[in-house]
Amino acid sequence: MPTDRPGTPDTPEMPDMPDLERELTALGAELDVPPPPPAPEVARAVRRRLQRPRGRRGFRPGWRPVTIGVALVTAILLGATPQGRAAVATVLRFAGVEIHVDPAPRPAPSPAPSPAASSPALPGERRVSLAEARARAPFRVLVPAALGAPDEVRLADGDRVVTLHWRARPGRPAVRLDEFAGRVEPVWRKDLGPPYPEEVRAGTRTALWIPRDHGLTYYPEGSQSPLTYERRAGPTLIWQHGGTGLRLEGLPTSGAATRIAATLR
Amino acid sequence: MARALAGDLDAYEVLVQRYSAVAHRTAALLGAGDEAADVVQEAFVKAYRHLAKYRTDSPFRPWLLRIVANETHNLTRSRGRRAELALRLAQVRETVVGDDPAGTVVEDERRARLLAALRELPDRERRVLVCRYLLQFSEAETAQVLGWPVGTVKSRASRGLARLRERFGPGEEVDDAH
């Protein structure tokens, strides 16, 4: 068995290497290193993660939960490259919603936005009573007094999302309010181009108003599964009330949306 | 490389494949142990997001491995665990029985003692010796991977070697194993 013993001639690769250093080098080959996963597998896993948002693995400490008031975490995803790529995508994380603002956003699905109850269903979505939703959801389910009792209540993905629907009435379009745990793991992703979401007030709370159509993606529980819910969303107000994250869709202006949001009970 | 820099994921995937094995070994030997695969994945994701900071006139490998080394360092620090615990001697030698069993045993003991001495070194000295000898990086590459000046690499390596020699002895005792 070839060994690097003191007194043996130097190997061509390591001329003049003192004994201890040679022994250390040899030790490198003797160590129990866990076998690496196949390179193509690593490449695929990395790619999957790069195509998904940040902070979705358990291993690294993610962003801190929003505990007091409202926090806005901004991160630069990709800087400009030497090639002069001017595009800088920005990710805002807010109340359980991840907002990607990119000069060239990924295109939103084509059907016209529809906040109606007939829009694509979330994983495991089912119709429930407001009382059942309140009993099951791990966050406080709130209803804006300005809208009155919802026409329909849906519970989805293992009680993770409660959606309240109000049908269109004279003088008011159909409105949809999604409620979810507004912390830690993002529940939704929004892809939009400029302008930046507008910071507005909803009662005493800070909210973000997205004035245009944008891509809306739902991150299912467990986060590693492929995306199953994606649609085009209309202007949306996002805010947080206690531990509940909310997204209100269907109202054409930030004024109309914030007036309703301020009446949350 | 240029295409990867421009944000082309297909091109980046090629880079990931090329460097994943060395990244894995680096993470494992620097203390990530069984979590090397996680560290490597994290490092590649971070590297991609920081590609803008990569200077095209310098080699990619040490730039990447520095991220791997940092991730490993963060991991071991965050777990509050001595990194060196992850270093284990492989058991393969037991099955590869040579023509000189007695010599093999002596040598195994010697390797085990060397490893134990290495584990007990101060963190910085151990890291530099792992890079220089176990991973066989050049001084320049070690400096880039650990983020230290070359002079620091030299001095910490020689301090580490001196400490190992003190604890481990010059090694003459195996000369008669033949």
Major β-sheet of chain A, in short?
Answer: 8 strands, antiparallel
Helical content of chain B, roughly?
A: 55-70%
Which segments of chain A are poorly predicted (pLDDT under 50) over 5 or more consecutive residues?
A: 1-15, 55-87
Strand order of the largest sheet of chain A: 4-5-6-7-14-13-10-9
Name the chain pair with the biggest interface and residue counts per chain. A-B, 44 and 71 residues
Which assembly state applies to the chains in this document? heterodimer
Shape of chain A: elongated
Q: Per CATH, what is the topology of the largest domain in chain B?
A: Arc Repressor Mutant, subunit A
Class computed from helices, strands and strand pairing of chain B: mainly alpha
**Over all CA atoms, what is the radius of gyration of chain A?**
26 Å
Listing every helix as H and every strand as E from the N terminus to the C terminus, the arrangement of chain A reads HHEEEEHEEEEEEEEEEH
How far is it from the N-terminal to the C-terminal residue of chain B, by CA? 51 Å
Q: What are the segments of chain B in which pLDDT stays under 50 over at least 5 consecutive residues?
A: 91-98, 171-178
Note the run of SSEs of chain B as H and E.
HHHHHHHHH
Number of strands of chain A: 14
Alpha-carbon distance between the two ends of chain A: 79 Å
Mean pLDDT over the full residue set of chain A: 74
The percent range for helix content of chain A is 10-25%
What is the β-strand count of chain B?
0
Beta-strand level of the residues of chain A, as a percent range?
A: 25-35%
CATH top level of the largest domain in chain B is Mainly Alpha
InterPro entries (chain B): RNA_pol_sigma-70-like, RNA_pol_sigma-70_dom, RNA_pol_sigma70_r2, RNA_pol_sigma70_r4_t2, RNA_pol_sigma_r2, RNA_pol_sigma_r3/r4-like, WH-like_DNA-bd_sf
Keywords (chain B): Sigma factor, Transcription, Transcription regulation
GO molecular function (chain B): DNA binding; sigma factor activity
Pfam families (chain B): Sigma70_r2, Sigma70_r4_2
